[in-house]
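Recap from last week: sequence in, structure out.
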Amino acid sequence: MVDLGVVMPVYKQKPAFLKAALESVLRQSYMDFKLIVVIDGAPEMEPLVRQYIDGDARAEVMPLGQNQGVANALNAGFKKLYKMKQIRYLTWVSSDNVYYPAFFETLRKALAKGPDELGLVYSSFQSIDNEDRPLNDESKLAALRQYQSKPKDKLLDSSIIGVSFMYKAKYAKMIDGYGLQPVEDYDYWLRLTEHCEIKYIPVELMDYRVNSTFSISATLQTVAQHRYWRYRYHLARHLARGRRNIEPLVTVIYPVSVVDGSSIERLENLYEQAFSNYYCYVLDLTPGGQATALLSSVSHPVTDFKSFANESEIKALLYAVQMLRTRYTMVLGPALFPDPMDMEFMIAQLSKADETAMSSFYTADRTDIRYRRHNEAPPRPDLYNELFRTEALLAILKTL
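Predicted structure tokens:
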């Protein structure tokens, strides 16, 4: 009985990649599946698809008149699969990746043998270039396996599921389809896993073609495109936390009195941090709102701007911190975070410290994270890039 439904969205693709992808799907060891190939407004691809399918009865071609994007193409394919009542498992595949023969069988077996609440399984994968050369040696594969094996709650911080996955149709039907391009897969996992559990299978089941000619990632190379992707990525996490009633843990305050290119660089450096459960307030100290005008051009879903025209930085900080309700607060200074994990590490350290620790910060040589403590001489000349307990920062500001 056919119980597995598969969608492959196809827009523009190199014929050799498309052929390899389709052949790898049609040669799976588990053969009881239905494949819907959605031609997303690229009629020139349809003859190639039909040629490579070569009359396989398991495959069906669905042409869309106009290009609608990956999310809409997926939704069209899955809508057809939902009409097949016997379909219990779902996945989708890309037109430039290569799937190992046991890809369907391994993932399906994990779902079938798991408990009812298990709704999504995923595996590791190898990365390849346009010439099919592997990009990860064993040490890199081991690092990827460790990254992907994080617990379910870490999905709120990063897309640990990756590109090799399968899920139960009954849970997919509980949520709306794919959306929020170009992070449609990550947003989907966040919504799906609000209804089910996940399981990681630490074995490579496919080759993921990195930055292939017509891939989504290849279209995100400019600064503007990356900013758009990053905004949507942060938005997916922000919306997920809102649905789960998870309050931000940190407020980041960025006082700006002089506006130049480094101000944008500093804010974007914050947005590239792995930790994302924060509010950000830009305190605009400029006389004419110049900081707001410039920095608001770099969108972020949890950044807001507060005008303190011609006010001193300390007074603006004191007023702002008195209004905060988050456990921790950080004041951004001009120095960039050298590592995208900096905030996460400081939070981890301060959350474990005893109550005499007012803050955590990196030493000047970045070899250690230390604490500011009550009744000790100030360990640093300023308050910048230091993670404070909010009440401790407020007490310090009142003395300045």
